[in-house]
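[Q] Does anyone have a clean structure-token version of this?
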Amino acid sequence: MMLSTTHPLATCPSIDIEDVLRLVSQGALTHLTLTSLLSAYQRPGVVVVPLTGLPPMPIRPVWPDGPNDGWARQFAAFAGDHAHSAGWLS
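[A] Here you go.
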């Protein structure tokens, strides 16, 4: 999906979770996220509305291609091994 050049995310010089939550609190954006996010980043006027009845959704790590690619691949492998040994993966 391409954002229009006037969309708040397209005009933000740096997009991080603080920017996303600011835009949500201003009513400019709706964001699907993890419930635990607001435990770490509390923002007045932003609430979590649970979506129930949805099937489990796989998540995938993403990272830019470049010199640090090896570190990202090692992290992804470690996270996958940990998730498997913890019984989170079927």
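[Q] Thanks! Anything notable?
[A] Helices lie at 8-11, 17-25, 37-40, 69-85.
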